[in-house]
Amino acid sequence: MRNQFPCEVMRLQAWRGLLRVSLGLPGGGTLCSRITRESAELLSLRPGLAVLALCKATAVQVGTTLQAQPGRNLLQGRVQRASQASAGGEAVLALPGAVQVVGFLEVPRSLRPGLDAVASVDESAVVIALAG
């Protein structure tokens, strides 16, 4: 997966029969993942545990007009690279803490390097793996 974030488990809370895991990003932001209780038990998740959060680039939408929605992560960043494809395109955002996120453009040709943008990813698309 192209998006790999070193994180620390901050909190686990029940959410509609699943667990919502809050993960601390290196730059101080938060990324959330929704997983089953069984997955959390198999990984022995607990606050303070170092993990990797992973998500496919196809699960990430990048734009300037994306709004907060329940169950979606919003990550603020600065465009490092954006393709100029006519039907979609890919963008790389630099996030605080020297982390990058790769995703697909909300509106083709709407972003260029240096602009502020937002990456949006559903919590269910964020996979947790043990670090190291």
Task: Put the structure in a nutshell.
With 132 residues, the protein is mostly beta strands. It has 1 helix and 10 strands; from the N terminus they run βββαβββββββ.
Helical content class: under 10%
Strand-residue fraction? over 45%
The gross shape turns out to be: elongated
Counting copies of identical and different chains, the oligomeric state is single chain
* Strand line-up in the sheet with most strands: 3-2-1-4-10
Please provide the ordered H/E string of secondary-structure elements: EEEHEEEEEEE
Please tally the β strands and state the result.
10
Describe the model.
The protein is mainly beta and 132 residues long. It has one helix and ten strands, in the order βββαβββββββ. It has a five-stranded antiparallel β-sheet. A hairpin with a 3-residue loop joins β7 (90-95) and β8. The radius of gyration is 15 Å and the shape is elongated. The relative contact order is 0.27. The mean pLDDT is 93.
